[in-house]
Amino acid sequence: MDERRAGRDLVDDSIIFVVDMIKDFLDPGEEFAIDEGRDMYDKLDELLAFGRANGIPIVHSASQGMNNSLYERHWWQIRDRVSCQVGSPTVDVVDRLRPPEYGDSEIYIAKSKYSPFYGTRLDTYLRNAPFLGRNTIIVTGMATNFCCMCTTVDAMNRDYRVLFVDDLNCTFDGIDGTPAATMHKVTVETLKQGYVEEVVTADDLMQRLAREAAPVAV
């Protein structure tokens, strides 16, 4: 990010994406649960509170309705109708992060593929106020090497600048036992090679946003 860019560029140019921070992926005991995801609550809650207070639009996306697709070959949880089912309360955003109500500036996108851009009305939302004219997408959520990576690539292919928040994304172990931390790191390093404008930490991002939102001395 070019620190010479003046004014409120990041505040006025950004959209916060929250990918699959839903009960199916976070509640203890759920088949898809990534326990580390709950460690992101505090910082993600802070980012969302800042966005709501400063007019940064927010997109929540939630996996559901993936049956009768190739996903059934890879995920028994989907094939057996255990997880990510349309109408289930477990596809709701977790209580800690869900807004009191959705509206024009904070929306919920049900997605049947890894990316919220595929087969949804997301592109239509982004072409209209309050999203229109904003060109930076801040990617947070789960899982790093699945829905977050696909969201990032699809955003980049639509000419959005992407800020990928390193410590507000996480994943699970690989099927061969590769540790989740390694899966995450390899994915992030891949995204750095042409898919994102920058990989940032939550603290660095919040500091930049706070500087922009601070009153200008006269």
Explain what you see.
With 218 residues, this protein is an alpha/beta fold. It contains 9 helices and 6 strands. It has helices spanning 9-13, 23-26, 41-54, 71-74, 76-79, 122-126, 144-157, 180-192, 202-213; strands at residues 14-19, 58-63, 106-111, 136-142, 161-170, 198-200. It has a 6-stranded parallel β-sheet with strand order 3-2-1-4-5-6, with helices on both faces. α7 (144-157) links the parallel β4 and β5. Residues 1-6 have low confidence and may be disordered.
Apparent shape: globular
**β-strand number:** 6
The largest sheet, given as strand count, sense and whether it forms a barrel, is:
6 strands, parallel
Radius of gyration, taken over Cα atoms and rounded to an integer in Å = 17 Å
Distance between the termini: 27 Å
- Residue stretches low in confidence (pLDDT < 50, at least 5 long) are 1-6
Topology:
Elements: H1 9-13, E1 14-19, H2 23-26, H3 41-54, E2 58-63, H4 71-74, H5 76-79, E3 106-111, H6 122-126, E4 136-142, H7 144-157, E5 161-170, H8 180-192, E6 198-200, H9 202-213
Parallel strand pairs: 1-2, 1-4, 2-3, 4-5, 5-6
Helix pairs in contact: 3-9, 7-8
Q: What is the compact description of this entry?
A:
The chain has helices at residues 9-13, 23-26, 41-54, 71-74, 76-79, 122-126, 144-157, 180-192, 202-213, and strands at residues 14-19, 58-63, 106-111, 136-142, 161-170, 198-200.
